[in-house]
Amino acid sequence: MTSVREWIDSGRHAVAERWHNAPRWMRWAVIAAVIVFFYALPNREFYQWLGPIPTTGSNFGQVLFTVSIYVLLAVGLNIVVGFAGLLDLGYFGFFAVGAYTVAVLTSPSSDLKTLWPWLLALPVALVLTMVSGVMLGTPTLRLRGDYLAIVTLGFAEMIRVAATASDFLKGQRGFNQIPHPPGSYSDGKPIFGVLDPRPYYWLVLTLIILVVIGVRNLNRSRVGRAWISIREDEDAAQLMGVPTFKFKLWAFASGAFIGGLAGALFAGKQNFVSSQNLELLNSIIILAAVILGGSGNIVGAIVGGGLVAYLIERFRGIEFFGVELYEYRFMFFGLVLVVMMIFRPQGLIPNRRRAAEFKDRRKEVIVGG
Amino acid sequence: MGETVQKPTVPEQAGAPAVESTAGDREPLLEVDHVTLRFGGVVALNDVDFTLYKGEILGLIGPNGAGKTTCFNAMTGIYQPSEGEIRFRGERITGKKKHHITKMGMARTFQNIRLFPEMTALENIQVGADAHHKTSVISALFRLPRHRREERDGIEKAERLLDFVGISGRMHDAARNLSYGEQRRLEIARALATDPVLLCLDEPAAGFNPAEKEELLQLIRKIRDQGITVLLIEHDMRLVMGVTDRIVVLEFGKKIAEGLPAEVREDHRVIAAYLGVPDDDVA
Ligand SMILES: Nc1ncnc2c1ncn2[C@@H]1O[C@H](COP(=O)(O)OP(=O)(O)O)[C@@H](O)[C@H]1O
Ligand SMILES: [Mg+2]
Fold first, then answer.
1. What's the CA gap between A355 and A361, in Å, rounded?
2. Chain A residues within an 8 Å CB radius of B97
3. How far is CA A260 from CA A65, A105, B39, B92, B102, in A?
4. Which residues sit opposite A319 in a β-bridge?
5. Which residues line ligand 1 (CB under 6 A)?
6. Do the interacting molecules here have an ipTM over 0.90?
7. CB–CB of B190/B125 below 8 Å?
8. Are B161 and B153 in contact (CB under 8 A)?
9. B166-222: per-residue pLDDT in tens?
10. How far is B193 from chain A (nearest CA, A)?
11. Quick check: B46 and B252 in contact, CB under 8 A?
């Protein structure tokens, strides 16, 4: 086992080395190729050549949309958990705030009867999710570790209960006829329709690229340094002049913003939002994705989010000795997480720093035991 | 480093007789005013009272457990005094936020090194330099000119400071990979990056051999020559004697002596404290 791991590690290091030593243009070329690949992916003319990768049980374009939403969520949660080191177990709550804000403002089933277009509701949803992030963060971010995890868990559950029980939020009946994003082709047909999921996927993909650029800029500034210093030694950070509370709040607000964006996009595609969309498990899946990919690393979060969401969908319709694998998806992820924690706690594509932090902990365990 | 602003507007004391002549114009920088600090039943600081004057190197010494580190912690806002107060640059700092006190010009190092271990030496210093940076989240997000300018300044400052403390070769190494001595120096550089008026060093020479100690003394003098006041915790008496202008001695949370190094060295209570002789045997 160890030798296999070493072999994989050395391979990864070689790739990383190559990457860092490659000329700038070559790196850009690779990035451009990857982006083009993902834009091309939902087209049948392209994916039919990809063997077992496309899903058999469901529309591949639809699957890619779901996957892209999870990637967006993983990138957002990675700011909170990976960079700032704040354990947020209720991240999906922000997705809910985004989706429900759009639903309430646009749907004919809403009591408000405002019937706004999607694009007008979007900024309101983003602002509201950020506000909810700040409101949740202000009392809780002074707490540390376990308390924060419990309070955030409670937050997501509170939103779910509110959505289920309150008349205003329509419970399981939900909101229907939520309008789609605007835009039409030259022949007058809408770009964002009911039948073709691909434009939604392309929209999310484009937003992922923009979000990743933004997050990367933050991470390579005093903001990112503040987050990492908080994660590594919060007291020392304060004593070096880092206003830790302020930056933790910013981590929360930025994460919430991205979660709300994902929720608003989901509502605009799905047409229908109800309390059934708000499984507690979703928060855990996103967290699992971030940990699986490599907490603290943007590429890791993208890979983790993509892989987890894709595998869940890939299980659909596959039978194994007469058992539908999809039914066992969560057990499978539990298993994967346990195995990861044992053999690769730093994730598939770890952040250089976090990998070392984990190594230290492993040593402590061995020395202590 | 930017302390001219703080000069009080007192007219020149032309005819006033020099009451005390030991430390030049003796402008108080830090006043620890009858501070008592308790942890449950333990009295870690007991009515401690001393003043630190601008431009001096003050030694804070005493046997292990005397309350030296606790005194630093009270000054830097980690603990609040149970009684008494602490003033820095004439302002009461009791109850102020830690990062605010740092911005006022007080910086420190730790007895047990507390760098950000996975950040590079450069990044560690940049965190210190960020204390005075004003780049907002928005301007970092869009890489606006202020972000670029402050980022450049931070890197230049880090290069200068790494050179100043003598570890310029380790700029891009993670702090955890530095040797023990290099880590101690990096901690000093990180503290200096916050542009302090007062630098507090908590046993910076712990674990050093005599040659390293000598180098450290030179570094401390160099820091003072930049106009920075230094408060130095140390329990190696000889080291303190060589570099400090004045010394405050703590024992069991109480100040037992204060004065010039030569005076303190002769003080029978200090000798007793260091030799472990009970008080009454000496008195
Ligand atoms: N957080 C704390 N809780 C309880 N007791 C403490 C705490 N910090 C320090 N002390 C006690 O205060 C006394 C002074 O400790 P300290 O300031 O670390 O001494 P020094 O730095 O002079 O060696 C010791 O008796 C220590 O046990
Ligand atoms: Mg101490």
1. 10
2. 238, 243
3. 16, 15, 45, 43, 36
4. A324
5. B 39, 42, 44, 62, 64-70
6. no
7. yes
8. no
9. 999 999 999 999 999 999 999 999 999 999 999 999 999 998 999 999 999 999 999
10. 9
11. yes
Mean pLDDT for chain B?
A: 88
**B260 neighbors B247 (Cβ within 8 angstroms):** yes
Burial class (CB within 10 angstroms; exposed 0-12, middle 13-18, buried 19+) of A10? exposed
Distance B61 CA to ligand 1 centre (A): 14
At B84, the amino acid letter reads G
Q: What is the rounded distance in angstroms from the CA atom of residue A67 to the CA atom of residue A61? A: 10
Whether B98 and A228 lie within 8 Å, measured CB to CB: no
Structure tokens at B37: 């600090």
Please give the biggest Cα pair distance in chain B.
Answer: 70
Q: In what order do the strands lie in the sheet with B83-88?
A: B42-53, B28-39, B83-88, B91-92
Measured CB to CB, residues of chain B less than 8 Å from chain A are 76, 78, 97-99, 102-103, 107-108, 110, 114-119, 123, 126-128, 130-133, 135, 137, 140-143, 147, 150-151, 154, 174, 176, 190-191, 194
pLDDT in tens, A211-245: 999 999 999 999 999 999 999 999 999 999 999 99
A354 CB near a chain B CB, below 8 Å? yes
Which residue's CA lies nearest to atom 9 of ligand 1?
A: B70
Which ligand places an atom closest to the C-alpha of B250? 1
Q: Is A48 exposed, middle or buried (0-12, 13-18, 19+ CB in 10 A)?
A: exposed
Interface check A301 vs B, CB under 8 A: no
User: What tokens appear for A110 in the block?
Assistant: 């809403």
Distance from CA of B218 to the nearest CA of A (A): 24
Cα angle: A16, vertex A18, A19; to 5 degrees: 60
Ligand 1 atom nearest to CA at B73: 17
Q: Which chain A residues touch B117 with a CB distance below 8 Å?
A: 232, 356-357
Domains of chain A plus CATH, in order, are 59-368 (1.10.3470)
Contacts of A237 in chain B (CB under 8 A): 116, 127
Give the CA count within 13 Å in the CB-facing half-sphere of A75: 30
The number of C-alpha atoms within 13 Å of A182 and in the hemisphere containing its C-beta is 7
CA–CA gap between residue B211 and residue B185 (Å, rounded): 15
pLDDT tens sequence across A168-209: 988 888 898 899 999 888 888 888 988 899 999 999 999 999
- Asked whether residue B3 carries a pLDDT value surpassing 70, the answer given is no
* B110/chain A closest Cα distance in angstroms: 9
Q: Do B184 and B112 meet the contact criterion of CB atoms below 8 Å apart?
A: no
- Residue B224 tokens, joined: 């003072």
Average pLDDT (A160-169) is 89
Q: What percent of chain A has pLDDT over 90?
A: 50
State the pLDDT at residue A79.
96
Residue of A148, A155, A156 whose CA lies nearest to A88:
A148
Å from CA of B85 to ligand 2 middle: 21
pLDDT digits (tens, 9 = 90+) for A10-66: 777 788 788 888 888 999 999 999 999 999 999 888 888 887 788 766 789 999 999
- Minimum CA distance residue for ligand 1 atom 25: B65
Question: How far is ligand 2, taken at its centre, from the CA of residue B54, in Å?
Answer: 24
CB-CB neighbors (< 8 A) of A228 in chain B: 116, 118-119, 123
Ligand showing the shortest atom-to-Cα distance for residue B111:
2
